[in-house]
Fold this sequence. Notes:
- The protein is elongated, with a radius of gyration of 18 Å.
- The protein has 121 residues and is an all-alpha fold.
- The chain has helices at residues 11-28, 34-45, 51-68, 76-94, 102-107.
- Helix 3 runs antiparallel to helix 4 (76-94).
- The model has no long low-confidence stretch (mean pLDDT 85).
- It is built from five helices and no strands.
Amino acid sequence: MxxxxxxxxxxxxxxxxxxxxxxxxxxxxxxxHAAEVLALIAALVDADTGTAVRLGxxxxxxxxxxxxxxxxxxxxxxxxxxxxYIEAASVLQDLRLLDLTLEPLRTAPVRTSPAETAPWQ
Length: 121
C-alpha cells in the first residue's frame, strides 16, 4: 500500500517508531485513565492503519524487494528467510481482528478494584 508519495526513511526513523511502542508500554504501567488507554489501543489495533497491519505490510514489502533484488543471492537460506517474512506478515494481518475487541472493552462493566494479578505477569 502506498500513500501516493515516497519518503526517504532512515534506520533512525524505524528506531523512533519502535521507541514509541516502548514508551507506550512504559506509559501503560503508570496506570492511566481507562478512556485514555482505549484511545491508544484504538490507534494501535485499527484494522486499516494499526501497528500490526503496517508492520505486516512492511514485512511483505521487504520480502518482495528482496525477491526482486538481483544482488541478493538465491540460496535456500534466503528463500527460507523470505518465507518467514511472508508468514510473519500473514500472522500480523490476522491481528487486524484485534480491532473488534474494542467495543467489548468499552462496554464491559467497570471493576471497583484492580485485579490482584494479571495472567501475563
